[in-house]
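quick q for whoever's on today - can somebody do inverse folding on this one?? i tried earlier but teh output was garbage lol. tokens:
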């Protein structure tokens, strides 16, 4: 223990001696947590709409007004030429074209039905799908409103009517920040922990101090623990700062216990830091460690369920997510923050993360070789 205490003193002095590391540890997560949730929005707004109205009737104007009043669309052009509207799509001036036929109102009144045509710019697949879905939903609402005006109900209505009342559990206001902020916080804790841990041993190699440590009787597990514990404490501190920012900036208070979050985070950081230390034993300079960490972080983030649902991924990707520690922590954070889950609910996640921690740290200890 005395040897470990001296190693920890050395590591903390080395960390706080470098002001750039302090900025990375504390300022970077804080700034990113204040900015990223505003940009990481699942809703698509400001869709540029071009309307081609061949009818110029009362109903066609009502439909256009309803579309533009939704808040999702911006009326870019209102004309009677589909060719001009399509040119705007080709020049990226419009995302969607709505063409209203000349007999729109006539067919709607006489034949009780009419057709509309939509042309969607599908270069951005997400924007195209959501924009088309928004427009179809608005048209359906318009259709129901028109039919309700025409219906003359008798005193006794023989038709059955079913009323559907929706209740949004866990996120009643449907605020996407409640869903995204916990996940972004996990990514920031992971980036700081794994990134700095992977650079730590490599930095010792580059400045030559690793050779001095190798000729001492310090055991390998003492050396690895001396590198792991300081960043484990800093990781928990970053988590605390992130939870504080979430509460102050976004009003997010976990529905569950903070003890559950910190309990899982303590185990999770052991696994992530073990991965960082393992990478540092396989690299000889900081450039290699940075590139390898960047590669793994991209895979971890994209296959973590942060931005895309894991259920929508192909089977081979779902298998990879089982070996992604970020996936488990994001799931736990959302369960505790939104649902109020307890230790019993996340027990399988904890045991899985313990397995990651044991395997990665044992691997790092075994692979680290002391050379004279």
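ok took a stab at it. sequence:
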């Amino acid at each position: 223990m005395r040897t470990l205490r001296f190693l920890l003193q050395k590591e903390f002095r080395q960390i706080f001696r470098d002001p750039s590391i302090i900025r990375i540890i504390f300022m970077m997560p804080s700034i990113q947590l204040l900015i990223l949730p505003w940009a990481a929005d699942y809703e698509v707004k400001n869709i540029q709409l071009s309307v081609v109205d061949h009818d110029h009737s009362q109903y066609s104007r009502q439909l256009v007004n309803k579309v533009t009043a939704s808040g999702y669309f911006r009326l870019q052009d209102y004309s009677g030429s589909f060719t001009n509207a399509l040119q705007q799509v080709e020049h990226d001036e419009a995302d969607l074209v709505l063409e209203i036929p000349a007999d729109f109102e006539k067919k709607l009144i006489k034949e009780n039905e009419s057709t509309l045509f939509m042309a969607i710019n599908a270069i951005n697949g997400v924007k195209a799908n959501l924009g088309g879905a928004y427009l179809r939903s608005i048209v359906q609402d318009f259709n129901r409103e028109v039919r309700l005006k025409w219906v003359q109900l008798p005193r006794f209505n023989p038709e059955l009517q079913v009323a559907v009342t929706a209740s949004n559990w866990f996120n009643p206001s449907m605020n996407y920040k409640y869903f995204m902020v916990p996940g972004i916080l996990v990514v920031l804790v992971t980036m700081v922990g794994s990134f700095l841990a992977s650079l730590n041993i490599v930095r010792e190699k580059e400045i030559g101090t690793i050779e001095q440590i190798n000729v001492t009787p310090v055991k390998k597990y003492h050396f690895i623990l001396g590198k792991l514990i300081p960043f484990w404490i800093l990781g928990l501190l970053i988590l605390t700062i992130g939870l504080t920012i979430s509460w102050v900036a976004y009003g997010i208070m976990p529905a569950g216990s903070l003890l559950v979050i910190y309990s899982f985070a303590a185990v999770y950081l052991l696994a992530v830091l073990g991965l960082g230390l393992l990478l540092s034993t396989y690299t000889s300079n900081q450039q290699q460690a940075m590139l390898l960490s960047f590669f793994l972080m991209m895979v971890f983030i994209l296959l973590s369920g942060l931005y895309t649902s894991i259920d929508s991924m192909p089977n081979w990707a779902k298998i990879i997510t089982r070996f992604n520690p970020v996936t488990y922590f994001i799931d736990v954070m959302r369960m505790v923050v939104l649902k109020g889950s307890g230790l019993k609910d996340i027990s399988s996640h904890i045991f899985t993360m313990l397995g990651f921690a044991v395997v990665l740290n044992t691997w790092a200890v075994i692979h680290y070789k002391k050379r004279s």
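fwiw The first strand starts at residue 47 and ends at 53. also The chain has two domains: 2-40+172-367, 47-150. so keep that in mind when u check it
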